[in-house]
Amino acid sequence: MSIQYQRLIIIFFSLILVALAIFLILFNSKKNFVFFLTPTELINTNDILNKQIRIGGYVKEDSIIVENNSSYIFILTDKKNEIKVKYSGILPDLFREGQGAVIEGNLKNKNQFLASRIFTKHDENYMPASIKNQLQQKNYWKKEY
């Protein structure tokens, strides 16, 4: 075999190995990508009952009902459609009515969602209370720059 033919074989097998590695990475990572659906998309989607999914939207005003100390029912909306969410556990600190939230769980029927985890979003003005207190003590809070 000539040197040129050996180099060609090495390059060919290297390309096959790289392509195989990229395929395996993409194939395994598609299971880890979790996008959220809005209530409208969720209502229009079929064959999603009892599967782990995420829904996103806003917590409807005056919709939070506390069943007991750690069980809540509220309505998540995207201003077009609504879905009733039931959650058992401790709510995040930023969770409140009118706030954006992403909720992970299972769809029990077209209008009821059983949540296992809640992720809340904050606006650009949010600051943890401990940092705010430190800034107030040092007279840097609400200072004109």
Structure description:
The chain has 145 residues and is of the alpha+beta class. It folds into 2 domains: 1-33; 36-120, Beta Barrel (OB fold (Dihydrolipoamide Acetyltransferase, E2P)), CATH 2.40.50.140. It has helices at 3-29, 39-44, 129-137, and strands at 36-37, 52-59, 65-68, 71-77, 82-88, 100-109, 112-120. Strands 2-4-5-7-6 form a 5-stranded mixed β-barrel.
Output the CATH class name of the largest domain: Mainly Beta
Strand order of the largest sheet: 2-4-5-7-6
Major beta sheet, specifics? 5 strands, mixed, barrel
Total domain count: 2
> Strand tally, please?
7
Helix content: 25-40%
Mean of pLDDT: 85
Output the helix-strand order.
HEHEEEEEEH
Shape: flat
Structural key phrases:
145 residues, alpha+beta, OB fold (Dihydrolipoamide Acetyltransferase, E2P), 7 strands
Quick gist of this model?
The protein has 145 residues and is an alpha+beta fold.
